[in-house]
Amino acid sequence: MDGKPMLMIPGPTPVPEQVLLAMAKHPIGHRSGDFSKVIAEITENLKWLHQTQNDVLCLTVSGTGAMEAGIINFLSPGDRVLVGDNGKFGERWGLISKAFGLNVDLIKTEWGKPLDPEEFRAKLEADKDKQIKAVIITHSETSTGVLNDLETINKYVKAHGEALIIVDAVTSMGALNIPIDEWGLDVVGSGSQKGYMIPPGLGFVSVSKKAWKAYETATLPKFYLDLGKYKKATDKDSSPFTPPVNLMYGLQVALQMMKAEGLENIFARHQRNTAATRAAMKALNLPLFAPDTHASTAITAVIPTTVDAEKIRSTIKKKFDIALAGGQDHLKGKIFRIGHLGFVSERDILAAIGALETTLQELGYEGATPGAGVAAAAAVLAQS
């Protein structure tokens, strides 16, 4: 059926009708009093979502732009940083840091495995002269479906005393409990096309008081991504540059929807959908790429052994118009990824798994009893 696509990828994620309708309104002047009211409401609700009283700044960028801003505003050339690298995005933050002349110390782990917090502890404790200025971590590594132990790593950063913690929460914000103030996270970046349930184009950066103190002496070059400009404007319910007015209309409604659902319910829904998806893959004898103990609530990565991952993706797209994500870099063609992030319901999970089972049968897969995946997922969802 034409015109009924289904996104089951880690981003862009499905967009609610209310959000789409809000975005269809006529734009208004971004310097008008009416739009200042929109910014004020968005700012208040962003702080609610981030569980913080810190500044939460809204930028017209992707998640990568938010993270670049989070790196360059608080550091100076030659500063030593620890960067966790166990996937595509951890690798990216290392490359960005090197591009700006930082002294990058990579803590690497094989893709599909979580970062070892003890490696961070050892490096931080050995830094007697407090040369480490920041620790940069991807919370939910979207390329592999691995969730890194941010809470434990952050405790070691706090024990160091000097270093900032800079967090990629691009696919965990709005899907997992990230109590920024409770944990004392310094810089947290995220992007609109993930848990926020709106199209790509906005990035968000939460900034602590400790990070703002570092900003005062940071000398890396910046202009459009100078967060000081964003803070000054946001404090006046404005923006330093022209914002995407209609996208912010959508954000306003999406945040209203999230508040109506409630944080605990949002997190529980993501956990349910993750558990149901993983149970289905196990019932279908499709190996999971990330361990259960460190499973992302954004995506589930699957590494099939007897059927081609790309044939699964192309067939389910052609037959059912369902988009699944593929692997990246050396995992291209080896894994497929099922997104269950943002505006994804239990009905979507069951529909996707049913379509996957039909696809597997069409491809001649004989590794599981037909219906086993849907039954396993249904059993998980029935317990909720």
Automatic annotation (TrEMBL):
Sites bearing N6-(pyridoxal phosphate)lysine, chain numbering: K194
A GO molecular-function annotation: alanine-glyoxylate transaminase activity
Necessary cofactors: pyridoxal 5'-phosphate
Keyword Transferase among UniProt keywords: yes
UniProt domain Aminotransferase class V: residue ranges: 10-328
GO biological process, alphabetically ordered: glycine biosynthetic process, by transamination of glyoxylate
Family: Belongs to the class-V pyridoxal-phosphate-dependent aminotransferase family.
Name of the protein in question: Aminotransferase class V
Amino acids binding substrate: R337
Keywords: Aminotransferase, Pyridoxal phosphate, Transferase
Pfam families per UniProt: Aminotran_5
Database matches in PROSITE patterns: AA_TRANSFER_CLASS_5
Keyword Acyltransferase found: no
